[in-house]
Amino acid sequence: MYKILDGKKIAAELRVKIRADVSEFKKNTGKDIGLAVVLVGDNQASQIYVRNKIKACEEVGIKSFAYYLPEETLQKDLNALLIELAGDDNVNGILVQLPLPQHLDSDEALKLIPESKDVDGFSANSIGNLCLGTESLVACTPNGVMKILEYENINLSGKNAVVVGRSNIVGKPMAMLLLNANATVTVCHSRTRNLKEHCLNADIIVAAVGKAKLITVDMIKDGAVVIDVGMNKDEHGKLCGDVDFENVKEKCSYITPVPGGVGPMTITMLMYNTYISALRSAN
Asked: Which of 117, 206, 223, 228 could form a disulfide with 243 if both were Cys (CB 3.0 to 4.6 A apart)?
């Protein structure tokens, strides 16, 4: 019998704790915790994400600073804002909502965010620290996956883990986190041969490739833990993940749904990272 990994419930419980921690921080330091969110252009999906992040800040008691820049913003103007925020003591975390308009260089922009304020965990320094096993702020989605596994006391040590997807935002940091938890990790991607064979060997599968229902029931071994990071639309326009949930679930020990699985954890971990950034700054 499978168990649903309820990310929505876990995220709600974590936010209660984060709110209490933020309140305690304010009481001890007399300071607010601040998160700056920068959005360039009018990408509708990005606008929704930013609204959700600002709402989450309100929920846990973090002060949000939202900067909405026009589509035609020049690199030098974006860079100037980020340099200003980097030096602002009221800002503990800086987030540039991706993707940026095509004429802007996201790598150049992200390099201007100090490691201590990189609450997205996307910078080269943050990724480097993760690879070295050094304490740093970790990309929110993979960190959210780890919190779900931790919440359910799912032991990763010695387990075979397959990560399907190699993006800098999810796949690569996810693989490093699993490796740091003593799992034996295989990373699969669009050039991988025999994806099914790799998946059938996995005790834990993390699907993060952005392809609707890619992972099917014949690719899962009995009792596997299946984490679905995908967010897609199926042939009927309905929201679905990278895993064929309805057919796969009966074969699993644990599985995350879409929606309501990993998604709610991502913004919660952003709030957590912002709190941790403020705590380190104060210390």
From this structure: 228
Calpha distance 192→233 (Å, rounded):
24
Which class for 238: exposed (0-12), middle (13-18), buried (19 or more C-beta within 10 A)?
exposed
Beta bridge partners of 164: 188, 207
Determine phi and psi for 77, rounding to 5 degrees.
-75, -40
Global pTM reads 0.94
Q: Which residues are part of the catalytic machinery?
A: 53, 97, 120
- CA pair distance 56, 267, nearest whole angstrom: 7
Q: Among residues 106, 90, 88, which one has the least CA distance to residue 98?
A: 106
For the stretch 116-140, pLDDT in tens is 999 999 888 898 999 998 888 999 9
pLDDT in tens, 164-183: 999 999 999 999 999 999 99
Q: CA of 237: how far to CAs of 209, 229, 261, in Å? A: 18, 18, 19
Write phi, then psi, for 208 (nearest 5 degrees).
-145, 60
Lookup: tokens for 130: 């993760």
Is-contact 253 226, C-beta < 8 A?
Answer: no
DSSP for residue 101: P
What DSSP string describes 43-54?
-HHHHHHHHHHH
User: What does each C-alpha distance from 22 to 28, 44, 63, 111, 163 come to in angstroms?
Assistant: 10, 30, 11, 28, 33
The vertex-79 CA angle with 55 and 97, nearest 5°, equals 30
